[in-house]
Design goal:
The complex is a heterotrimer of chains A (250), B (277) and C (212). By secondary structure, chain B is an all-alpha fold. Helices cover 74% and strands 0% of the residues of chain B. Chain B has one domain (39-276): MetI-like (MetI-like fold), CATH 1.10.3720.10. Chain B has helices at 2-33, 41-45, 54-85, 90-104, 107-121, 128-152, 156-164, 169-197, 201-204, 226-237, 243-270. The radius of gyration of chain C is 18 Å and the shape is elongated. Helix content of chain C is 84%, strand content 0%. In chain C, helix 2 packs antiparallel against helix 3 (73-107), helix 4 packs antiparallel against helix 6 and helix 4 (116-139) runs parallel beside helix 7 (173-205). Classes of the chains: A alpha/beta (250), B mainly alpha (277), C mainly alpha (212). At the A-B interface, helix 2, helix 3 and helix 6 of A face helix 7 and helix 8 of B.
């Protein structure tokens, strides 16, 4: 059974239809890249998976997204539990204006996952998983903003990991970072996929090719092609995909 | 070269109003300080029944403090509601306008309202509580507006991050937005207190009397205040000696210390607002 | 829309087609030299040296395109195949040289064709395959490239028949050996034509066919 099963997903913002009948199955413990030109709906797609689109006024969604077989758009589903299970890392690093420790503890506290000793253990574990522990272990109470951009983004990853999610969504996580920081985060992704299911939106074709097992190509709100990354990049089935990835658009 | 000279002249002239304000400020402080000679620790701590200023000073502090304690939280919560929860409709717009209008109401009118509604209608009489409520009404629009601005200044990315972690809207506001907006909120409270600090007209017939027997034992009792007493001293009693300057100096000092505490708090929290850099 | 990569690909294609021209010329020179019994080594040597230099340039250019443009999909298949094809074309030149040189060494460039009909047929077919391989490259014609499979079979048949004959030949041993080797080289030329064909099919369809 697929970890995430998107079925006939349609999303409108006011009168504009942003996603058209999107359907795809994402396997557990894989890294899936979602790419496409600006405005193709890729961000809307992943935001649908943790229902962050609900926050936007005048948004309307039809269709289903099943996670472990259960439709997350059911009335009985708690959006807050969902967002704990499905974590998100945003394009521009956005740590809270608090200390490094408080940033990680935030999620743990609001979901009442642990206190005291156990909480400290989770904080350390999350920072280790995000490959940040060694750099901050001696200054956990410094402001999160004293970190560099790349470190802040890893902090955001650790923050998402702290609430023990199963799926991690990343919306162009490296676009605001320099190549060295990008490389560090890309290196993380493979390791993360052993424990979690990672879905990443990216503008950068080469990044999609480097990090993902499966790639989805979106175009004008539709899922144009979806498949094994190697095959898609070596021999795409769709003409549109070919035109896009070889840069012949325009 | 001409441009440079011109620029320099323009920018220097911008400094003139500042200089004028500072001169005025120093002149006021100087005038007030002439009354310093009349002050003594003894005078300040002696009861009014014995010619001292004790009850007036404490009364002033009670009035300002109480009003701030009422207007502060209510104002902040109202601001939170207006920014985060209020729907974009007619009703919200009307509420918005009402708040603006309240800010512009002359203090004597607010005092009159306080007298007829709180004192008479509700039956609180001339009391500390009536004073608190009336002064709070004057402080409220400033606290609400200022807090609104402070909350709106919080980058939406923080909110998104909190919601993305599964926080409810309220959790996101209480755990994150409010602490981040704290400096701005404190500033608005300072400004609010500045409005009511020297208020005489609003407390004139809502809470103050010329003399009381000791400090008020409950909020339902009337209170003495420096501003009111000063007013009566000058107009009714006709007092012209240096003592009135002494009283004014104390009033001035109280207000300044309130403001100083608030500014210190604000500076401390502002240092943590690193995302503004 | 013209991309930065396109001018590079154009240059690569031009270089490859030039190589094709040169390769075809060198093979026909050496085959004719053998069949007519004259010394073609000088000309063929020149041409195959040119081919060697051009192979290096093509590989270099292909590498440059990979480093700079990180090509994907059809672009990547083209560049990958072009590198293979450059090698095949260089091999053409190499075998052309081998034929002329062997002819000179063993038969002193004299007329020494054993089993004229078979040899003529075989060399004719090999030349045809070289021509078709280069044509399908120029025209990007995968269908044409696929036809090489059939011709390759025919060449193989003739080859083994010729070997059979040669093994039964009586005197003039040096000439026999010369014929044997030339036949071998012709067969190898045919093989490389099919390799080229496979690479051309891969560019067009992404399939990794075997035409042998």
């Amino acid at each position: 059974m697929a970890k995430v099963d998107v079925r006939k997903l349609n999303v409108w913002f006011k009168d504009k239809q942003v996603l058209k009948d999107v359907g795809m199955e994402i396997r557990e413990n894989t890294v899936t890249a979602v790419m496409g030109p600006s405005g193709c709906g890729k961000t809307t797609l992943i935001r649908a998976i943790n229902r962050m689109n609900d926050i936007i006024e005048d948004s309307h969604t039809t269709g289903e997204i099943l996670i472990d077989g259960e439709n997350i758009y059911n009335r009985s589903v708690s959006v807050y539990e969902l967002r704990r299970k499905v974590g998100m890392v945003f394009q521009k690093p956005n740590p809270f204006p608090k200390s490094i420790h408080e940033n990680i503890a935030f999620g743990i506290k609001i979901h009442k996952i642990a206190i005291g000793r156990k909480l400290e253990e989770i904080v350390e574990k999350s920072l280790r998983e995000a490959a940040l522990w060694d750099e901050v272990k001696d200054r956990l109470h410094d402001s999160a903003f004293s970190l560099s951009g790349g470190q802040q983004q890893r902090l955001c990853i650790a923050r998402a990991l702290a609430v023990e999610p199963e799926i991690i969504l990343m919306d162009e996580p490296c676009s605001a970072l320099d190549p060295a920081a990008t490389a560090k985060i890309e290196g993380l992704m493979k390791g993360l996929s052993e424990k979690y299911t990672v879905i990443i939106v990216t503008h950068n074709l080469q990044q999609a090719a480097r990090v993902s097992d499966f790639t989805a190509f979106m175009y004008l709100g539709k899922l144009e092609e979806y498949g094994n990354t190697r095959s898609l990049f070596e021999n795409p089935k769709s003409e549109v995909t070919e035109t896009y990835i070889t840069g012949r658009f325009g | 070269m001409r441009e440079n000279a011109r620029e320099k002249i323009y920018f220097s002239t911008l400094g003139i109003p500042l200089i004028i304000c500072m001169l005025a400020f120093f002149w006021i402080v100087y005038t007030l300080s002439t009354g310093a000679t009349t002050l003594s620790w003894d005078l300040v701590t002696r009861s009014a029944l014995q010619g001292g200023m004790f009850e007036m000073i404490i009364g002033t502090i009670y009035l300002l403090g109480g009003a701030a304690i009422i207007a502060g939280p209510i104002g902040v919560l109202a601001a939170v509601y207006l920014v985060e929860y209020a729907p974009n409709g007619r009703l919200t717009h009307i509420i918005d306008q009402a708040i603006n209008n309240l800010a512009g109401v002359p203090s004597v009118v607010v005092g009159l309202f306080g007298f007829t509604f709180f004192a008479r209608q509700i039956g609180l009489g001339i009391s500390l509580l009536t004073g608190w409520l009336t002064l709070a009404l004057m402080m409220l629009p400033i606290v609400i507006r200022g807090s609104e601005e402070a909350i709106k200044m919080i980058p939406p990315s923080f909110k998104e991050a909190a919601l993305g972690l599964g926080a409810t809207k309220w959790k996101s506001i209480s755990s994150m937005t409010l602490s981040a907006a704290f400096p701005g909120i404190v500033t608005s409270v300072i400004l609010g207190m500045a409005r009511i600090a020297g208020e005489t007209a609003a407390i004139l017939f809502t809470s103050c009397v010329f003399i009381t027997r000791g400090l008020p034992k409950s909020p339902l009792e009337p209170v003495m205040s420096l501003a009111y007493n000063l007013f009566i001293q000058i107009t009714v009693v006709g007092e012209r000696s240096q003592v009135i300057f002494g009283m004014a100096l104390i009033l001035f000092s109280i207000i300044t210390s309130f403001a100083l505490v608030a500014i210190i708090l604000r500076t401390y929290y502002r240092r943590r607002q690193l995302w503004l850099r | 829309m013209s991309r930065l990569l396109d001018s590079g690909l154009e240059q690569l294609t031009t270089m490859l087609l030039k190589m094709g021209e040169t390769a075809e010329k060198s093979i026909s020179e050496s085959v004719e030299g053998f069949m007519q019994g004259r010394d073609a080594t000088k000309k063929v040597h020149e041409l195959s040296e040119v081919l060697l230099t051009m192979t290096v340039s093509v590989e270099d250019k292909a590498f440059e395109l990979i480093v700079k443009y990180q090509p994907v999909a059809s672009d990547l298949r083209i560049i990958n195949s072009y590198m293979k094809i450059a090698y095949d074309l260089e091999r053409y030149g190499r075998y052309a040289w081998d034929i002329s040189f062997t002819h000179k060494k063993l038969a002193d460039s004299q007329k020494c064709v054993y089993s004229w009909d078979l040899m003529e047929k075989m060399s004719g077919k090999a030349l045809e395959m070289v021509h078709i391989s280069i044509k399908s490259l120029r025209d990007q014609n995968a269908e044409l490239a696929k036809t090489l499979a059939k011709t390759e079979n025919e060449v193989d048949e003739i080859y083994f028949k010729h070997l059979d004959h040669l093994s039964k030949a009586i005197p003039r041993t040096k000439c026999v050996v010369c014929n044997l080797l030339v036949a071998r080289y012709l067969e190898r030329i045919a093989d490389h034509a099919t390799y080229m064909g496979e690479a051309i099919v891969y560019i067009a369809t992404g399939e990794k066919l075997t035409l042998r």
